[in-house]
Amino acid sequence: MAHFDLPEDQLARYRPELDVPDDLEEFWSSTLAEARGFDVDVELTLVDTGLRAVDAYDVTFSGFGGHRIKGWYVRPVGDDVVPAVVEYVGYGGGRGLPHERLAWAAAGWGHLVMDNRGQGSTWGTGGSTPDPAPAGRGVGGFMTRGIDDPHDHFYRRLFTDGVRAVDAVRTVAGVDPERVAVLGGSQGGATALAVAGLVPGLLAAMPDVPFMSHLARAVVLTDAYPYREVADHLRTHRGAEARVMRTLSYLDVATLGRTASAPGLFSAALMDLTCPPSTVFAAFNHYGHPAGSEIDVYRFNGHEGGEQLRWARQRAFLADLLR
To answer: Where is the active site (predicted)?
Structure first.
């Protein structure tokens, strides 16, 4: 795939006007207040993984609507107080198995991997969290679940779960609540960005090739799924564009990230048809903590971006912050 989006020098300056609803702050403050009306009620159950250097726990906590959200928490053996990362998973995936992600714990961090409600059946080794909310009308997938009203949309629930995952890990014994970072790729990157804009006092946010950014451009720039789900819906529901785009404007992480208070480490890939680079740069250039924030660009990669190269880069970024 050749470069198809803006030239790289224009991407570096790309800071489009965003469609920000007048009541965006109230929408999210009331959403989180409602969710926090339920006790986060973290349950940790030690599981036997056969691993000697780390302890792994099956995690359950209360997310949106008090719904019980699953995850894995893995940390180094011992009672030292450690910093923590919360990881969010990409579209269609789930929390998988605890031995699949050991690098952070091996490096001395607590690591909470949040399950995706209603997902976990598309790739990987599965998920364990249902989404009890009704889907409403829409095409297959998650982009159009609740598309007629932002209060009903799937990503209102998922992003709230992401906030509550931070709330949850901050209550875990042996975690330093002042040193919690969030990260993820694609949909996980979108959740990390949303959480960075909604939760104060994070150590860092590290979104890779984030989804759900600059949605007004994304849904008309690429023909790839999941953004294509919106076009498929509008192809049938002619005349619904204004209502659909209004719903999505409450969930656009380029908008939500404007209020982030933690340094960010982003990545973009110039051949990425799934999350086009201009949509990622829109989020980066609007990001609320520009001082100390960075973006890595992979010129010859698609949506895979930097893959396993990201961990070493992220570890070094956090080590600098901790120093």
So the answer is: 186, 272, 303
What's the chain's average pLDDT? Answer: 97
- Let me know if 111 is a catalytic residue: no
Alpha-carbon span 14 to 160, nearest angstrom: 28
**Strand 175-185 relative to strand 265-269, pairing:** unpaired
**pLDDT tens track for 85-125:** 999 999 999 999 999 999 999 999 999 999 999 999 998 99
Residue 91, marked binder: yes
Intra-chain end-to-end CA distance of the chain, in Å = 40
Please tell me the number of Cα atoms within 13 Å of 85 on its side-chain side: 29
pLDDT digits (tens, 9 = 90+) for 235-291: 999 999 999 999 999 999 999 999 999 999 999 999 999 999 999 999 999 999 999
Sign of the CA dihedral running 64, 66, 69, 75 = positive
Q: Which H or E run includes 271?
A: none
Q: What is this structure's pTM?
A: 0.98
Domains of the chain: 8-316 (3.40.50.1820)
| Annotation marks residue 9 as catalytic | no
What is the structure's pLDDT at 136?
A: 74
Whether 249 is a known active-site residue: answer no
Which residues are registered as beta bridge partners of 206? Answer: 183
List the catalytic residue out of 186, 213, 267, 278: 186
Tokens of 100: 């699949």
